[in-house]
Amino acid sequence: MSPRLREVIDHLESIYPPRLAESWDAVGLVCGDPDEPAEKVLVCVDVTDAVVDAALADGVQLIVAHHPLLMRGATTVAANTPKGRILHRLIRGQCGLFAAHTNADKARRGVSDALADALGLLDTVPLAPEPVDALDKWVVMVPEGNADQVSEAMFQAGAGSLGDYRDCQWSVVGTGQFLPVDGAQPAIGVLGDLTRVDEQRVEMVAPRRIREPVLAALRAAHPYEEPAFDVFEQAAVHGDVGLGRVGRLPAPMSLADFVDHAGRVLPQASWPVRAAGDPASSIETVAVCGGAGDSMIGAAAASGADAYVTGDLRHHVVDEALRDGAPALVDAGHWGTEFPWCVTVADILTEIGCRATIFHHPTDPFTVVAGPKEQHE
């Protein structure tokens, strides 16, 4: 049975969670009916008229693009505007459009992973790692006979999850004591008497963003009028996602050889790979960031990389960075550093029964370059 668009979106967003996208970004479904089939899919970097031509000619039901068509905040999608024309053509052709942008830049199996893999880098880690979801640690004291009901209520509110595991907790039995005074309505014990109870100390974690629902669930399920509990904010730790990657080559090579290597293994638009640095310098540790990555030069330098591969490097930025001790800087183009991801996405879609093809023709807007300059004596 052909996968529905909804199923394709769910699968892609499980790998490229929208929560990873930058606040200014516009990711997700742009057009299309989630209940319609989405078996034939075309993957591309940019949504251009040529991409739409290819999709409609082949009966494609969904385009998955890296760059969002409407990221710049269009105020109209009229058919006589460039973006509106594309959307009208897609809707008339019953072809959906989905974008994974900065969420695909940060997630594993993302843009920079594909770039690092194409270059043959090993043991990659994020160049700018992001903290994992901020966690609270909950410690709750509850009568031994009521521990399960309290734990279950907290689980239902979202607590006790660690990666692919659910209902996680640690507990130990001890003795709690309390003395009810005037105004109390104790569930156990009587006013004026010191009461000792066999209690279970239950510990679990929960995302900080759901603190209020977890607290409400705890209070509703706990038998005590005033439950005893602690909430500790966990220190932030870096996860395995974030912009860029840094890894190592299987063997060192000179910068000149590395640039030749990048030119051979990366897709090339009309202009070649270029680099700034000493051509004889030894390159082993390499940082990468697909797309326009000059804002990450500092992170690349801090990582100890010998070279940094990205796109859209600017003259003054590169000149100043090299003066400040930056690694060799390799510009492999915006499209050229992002296109390898298309192969990854096609593989991901195949996993759920889609027939995925890739738009291989460069969508880099620079298509005309000068020929060799004549040499004059």
From TrEMBL:
SUPFAM superfamilies: NIF3 (NGG1p interacting factor 3)-like (SSF102705). Signal peptide: none annotated. InterPro entries: DUF34/NIF3, DUF34/NIF3_bac, DUF34/NIF3_sf, N-reg_PII/ATP_PRibTrfase_C. It holds the Pfam family DUF34_NIF3. Keywords: Metal-binding. The keyword Metal-binding applies. The keyword Transcription regulation does not apply. Belongs to the GTP cyclohydrolase I type 2/NIF3 family. PANTHER family: GTP CYCLOHYDROLASE 1 TYPE 2 HOMOLOG, NGG1 INTERACTING FACTOR 3. Homohexamer. This is GTP cyclohydrolase 1 type 2 homolog.
